[in-house]
Amino acid sequence: MLMPAHLNCPPDTIIMIEHIMQFHITALDGTDDDAPERRRGAWQAHLDYVTERKAAGDFILGGSIIDDYGDHIGSSLFVEVVDRTELDRWLKNDPFSIHKVWQTFDIKMVEIPPFN
């Protein structure tokens, strides 16, 4: 979605920028016996994907969710995209989704302040 933005421009100048939305995603792995193996098998492809997305500027931060026994049971991600449709596409293309590592999602819109 393009929105008018009044930046540091001459008076009466309007430029168009894309509105960016930020999301926090909690993606939980399956709990079946094969879930840990699916995670291990897709790990490198997932890491490559989020590294590419970080370079593209839409992956902010993320990491594994660890249970009390030290097992990886999900992921916590912060992503910045144009809209929810783009977020859904982003998640669908992640190898952890493709290989059915993640089974449930809790998605919240957030606002992360710019830290300098």
Explain this structure to me?
Strand 4 and strand 5 form a beta hairpin. This protein has a single domain, classed as Dimeric alpha+beta barrel (Alpha-Beta Plaits). Helices cover 31% and strands 38% of the residues. With 116 residues, the protein is α+β, with helices and mostly antiparallel strands. Strands 4-5-3-6 form a 4-stranded antiparallel sheet. Strands 1-2 form a two-stranded antiparallel sheet. The longest helix has 22 residues. The chain is globular, with a radius of gyration of 17 Å.
CATH class: Alpha Beta
Helix-strand sequence: EEEHEEHHE
- Helical coverage, percent range: 25-40%
Structural class per helix/strand content?
Answer: alpha+beta
Choose one word for the global shape: globular
Question: How does the major sheet shape up?
Answer: 4 strands, antiparallel
Q: Write down the domain tally.
A: 1
CATH architecture field: 2-Layer Sandwich
Mean of residue pLDDT values: 88
Could you please say which CATH topology applies here? Alpha-Beta Plaits
In short:
The chain has 116 residues and is of the alpha+beta class.
Provide keyphrases for this structure:
single chain; 116 residues; alpha+beta; Alpha-Beta Plaits; four-stranded antiparallel beta sheet; two-stranded antiparallel sheet; 3 helices; globular; disordered N terminus
Write the layout of secondary structure elements.
Elements: E1 2-5, E2 15-18, E3 21-29, H1 35-56, E4 59-66, E5 72-81, H2 84-93, H3 95-98, E6 102-110
Antiparallel strand pairs: 1-2, 3-5, 3-6, 4-5
